[in-house]
Amino acid sequence: MNNSNIQNIFVIAHTDHGKTTLVESLVSNRTIKKEEDSDITTMGSLFHYDLPDSVPLPLGLDSRRFLLNLIDTPTVDIGCRLKESDDALVVVDVVEGVCVSGQAMLQLERINSVLFINKMDRLILELQLDSEDAYQTINRIVETINVSIQLGGNGSNSKQKRIIDPVVGNVAFGSGVQGWAFTLENWAALYETKLGVPKEKLLRRLWGNNFFDDVNKKWVSNRVSEDGRTLKRGFCFLIYEPLRDIILAANEKNSEKLTKQLYYININLTNAELEQTSRKELICTVMKRFLLINNCIISMVVKHLLLPSPSPHNNII
Ligand SMILES: Nc1nc2c(ncn2[C@@H]2O[C@H](COP(=O)(O)OP(=O)(O)O)[C@@H](O)[C@H]2O)c(=O)[nH]1
Ligand SMILES: [Mg+2]
Q: What domain of life is recorded for the organism (predicted)?
């Protein structure tokens, strides 16, 4: 193995935002049967990732294999452990938002980072936000992190800073405790197969001010149409609402509703699984099968932190 492909990734977050749970979830889910085409294996908190053969080997690398060491970094240690050249997986509790210590740390340390917006289950089950409010809550986190990134990292020794952007794919959303996570690309790929719309075209519609006018059948940038109708954002009706419907159906143990939702995403549950005694377990079973956290988080880290200078919209899988 080429040693240059081994990398420490610091998992950083404000206390209680879910670092330890995330790393434990990634480690424990290695026992889940791998998909046929999965290229991720794990060993302790070390994660192997093999770049798919379809992706040209980037210049300067002589191995397709990456070894990631995810370091669950206690908040008190961050200041002394991180160097300018380090890479980090930043975890933010979507309900609490970015806490001051987290922002200060990003400014100070000038690190490159990807973001995991954690505890999405709380947004759906506890706060029960409508989809536009959920979008605004998440977007505030993305904007706050970007302000921090831009304030730091301009020193001559620092790497070229990359802002985080869900469309680029360096932001993932999910629930560490439930074992699921996604980037916009997961949904774009799903709709590409379902609707025949090219993934790249769809990706841009899944974030930001992209609203669908279903009367005139076109995408527009204003939330209110010329004739006064309130339109829905791409993120809301193509991601958040389907996600919420699946989680709520599992939480209600409504097998009729759930089976219908799962049919669309090609997931079958056995009767035994549907009748699982605990609602929590049922949500985890369904969501892990749909969007297993390992696939999303590990490939995001490799693509956006480990591969040399990924260009925006550089899709390696
Ligand atoms: N609802 C919910 N709770 C979570 C999630 N991830 C972690 N937690 C809970 O948040 C608390 C703090 O998590 P922990 O991993 O210890 O945070 P750390 O201090 O950043 O390591 C624990 O009670 C976890 O069970 C999540 O995705 N959803
Ligand atoms: Mg911890």
A: Eukaryota
